[in-house]
C-alpha cells in the first residue's frame, strides 16, 4: 500500500510539473531548454541536502566506490548522461504538444521501458503486471482514437456545390455606351454602317469632340 500511494503521488507530481511547465512556456515565451536549466538548478538546491543526509554516506561506503570499480562508475556516468538527454527530449516534446498528449506519450515510454527490462533483466512477471501493461496500452489506443475523432469533427465540411455567379453592372446612362436594338440605337437613331462608324471613331479619336470632358479614353469597342 505504501508503494501504491508513493506511485500515485509521483504520478500526480509528474502531471503537475508538465502542466505548469507548459503554462510557463506559453505565458513567458521562454525557451524550453532555458526552462530546463532553471528547473535543474532549483532541483539541485532543493534535493541536495536530502541526498547528503540519506544517501551520500551509503554511496561513498559502497565497495565499488571504495575500490574504484570503473565499470560501476561508467554505468553511473552513462545513467546521468542518458537521464540528461531524456530531459532534453522531454521538454522539447512538451514545447510542441499539450500536457495530456505528453503524458500519454510518457505512458507509452514507460510501457516500452518495462518490456525491455523484462527481456534484459529477466524480472518475474505476474498476471497483475500483464493486466496493468495491457490496460495502459488500451488507454493509449483509446486516447489516440478519441483525438482523431475530435480532429475530424473540427474540420469544416467540404462544399457540395460551388456557384460562380458574376454580377454585371449596367453601363452608365450615356449615349455612347448604349447598345443597338433592332438595328437602331437606344436613342432612336439608326445604327451607323461600318464605314460611318470608322469615320466617327477616327474623328472622335482625333479631336475628342462630342465626348464628355473632351476625352477619347471612354470609347467602347464591341
From TrEMBL:
Domain Sugar phosphate transporter: 1-144
Residues spanning the membrane: 31-52, 72-105, 111-143
GO CC field: membrane
Pfam family, one: TPT
Location relative to the cell: Membrane
Topology of this chain in the membrane: Multi-pass membrane protein
Principal location: membrane
Annotated InterPro entries: EmrE-like, Sugar_P_trans_dom, TPT_transporter
Keywords: Membrane, Transmembrane, Transmembrane helix
Protein name: Solute carrier family 35 member E1 homolog isoform X2
Source organism per UniProt: Drosophila lebanonensis (Fruit fly)
Gene behind the chain: LOC115626840
Amino acid at each position: 500500500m505504501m508503494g501504491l500511494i508513493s506511485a500515485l503521488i509521483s504520478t500526480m507530481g509528474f502531471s503537475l510539473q508538465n502542466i505548469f511547465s507548459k503554462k510557463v512556456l506559453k505565458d513567458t515565451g521562454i525557451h524550453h531548454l532555458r526552462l530546463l536549466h532553471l528547473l535543474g538548478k532549483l532541483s539541485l538546491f532543493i534535493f541536495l541536502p536530502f541526498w547528503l543526509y540519506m544517501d551520500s554516506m551509503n554511496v561513498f561506503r559502497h565497495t565499488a566506490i571504495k575500490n574504484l570499480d570503473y565499470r560501476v562508475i561508467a554505468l553511473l556516468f552513462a545513467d546521468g548522461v542518458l537521464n540528461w538527454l531524456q530531459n532534453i527530449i522531454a521538454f522539447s516534446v512538451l514545447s510542441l504538444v499539450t500536457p495530456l498528449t505528453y503524458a500519454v506519450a510518457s505512458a507509452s515510454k514507460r510501457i516500452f521501458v518495462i518490456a525491455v527490462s523484462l527481456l534484459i533483466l529477466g524480472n518475474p512477471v505476474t498476471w497483475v503486471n500483464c493486466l496493468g501493461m495491457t490496460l495502459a496500452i488500451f488507454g493509449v489506443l483509446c486516447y489516440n482514437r478519441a483525438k482523431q475523432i475530435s480532429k475530424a469533427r473540427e474540420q469544416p465540411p467540404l462544399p457540395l456545390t460551388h456557384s460562380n455567379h458574376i454580377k454585371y453592372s449596367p453601363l452608365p446612362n450615356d449615349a455612347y455606351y448604349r447598345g443597338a436594338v433592332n438595328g437602331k440605337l437606344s436613342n432612336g437613331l439608326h445604327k451607323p454602317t461600318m464605314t460611318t462608324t470608322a469615320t466617327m471613331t477616327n474623328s472622335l479619336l482625333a479631336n475628342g469632340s462630342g465626348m464628355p470632358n473632351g476625352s477619347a479614353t471612354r470609347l467602347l469597342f464591341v
